[in-house]
Amino acid sequence: MRRTVVPAVEVAAVIAAVALGGRLGIIVLLALASVALALRGRRWQAAEDGDRGSAWALAGGAVVGALALAGALAVSPAVLGATGAAVEWSTAPVVRGSAVQLAVAVVPAIALALAAELVFRRWLLERVASPADGVIVAAIVEAAVLPAGDAGGWGRLGTVLGSCGLGIVYGAAGGRVAASIGARVVFEIGALVVQALRLVG
């Protein structure tokens, strides 16, 4: 019975997340993935998350996130020139030029980053037999769930590439989700900061 119920819940979770999209899709995916994990007798925290390597993984991930942000800033003019679409830095353009709005946007941005890394790396990636295939599957689902913004297809391509990068960071850290969380949080908060300071167009 459980062998058929768990996959059904997992498939339903992905379908519902894609249908709803955005933050609500991530929340629904997190909730249903939690149910699926419970049915399998598992939990979100893995053995690797409590060892000393997790602190180093978090720090290393943060460095990767900062480097990725710097790289994105560097290529942003070229992307605009080649595609005609500006880089979609975040889903919170309201922070542009406003320190107050930046402070308000930081908390939900961190929460969403944590939820996204749990569902896409710790859960979905790990549910695929091959780690390489898991990186790709997680990236495709993430691109389908998260909004593409004004960039459309280019925005989804950027999401796929970013998600693949986070999957590689996760794998390189030995499956320690702290690494991909660190990278994502630093990139997301950095994107909000550069918008608030009007460093990007």
Top keywords for this entry?
0% strand, 201 residues, mainly alpha, single chain, 7 helices
Q: What is this structure's SSE topology?
A:
Elements lengths: L1 H19 L1 H18 L13 H31 L15 H29 L3 H15 L7 H20 L4 H20 L5
Helix pairs in contact: 1-2, 2-4, 3-7, 4-5, 4-7, 5-6, 6-7
Structural class: mainly alpha
Q: Assign a percent range to the helix content.
A: over 70%
What fraction of the residues are assigned to beta strands by DSSP?
under 5%
State Rg.
17 Å
Termini, distance in Å? Answer: 54 Å
- What is the element string, with H for helices and E for strands? HHHHHHH
DSSP E strands, number: 0
Unreliably modeled segments: none
General description of the model:
This protein has 201 residues and is mostly helical. It contains 7 helices and no strands. The radius of gyration is 17 Å and the shape is globular. The termini are far apart.
Provide a concise account of the structure shown.
With about 200 residues, the protein is mainly α.
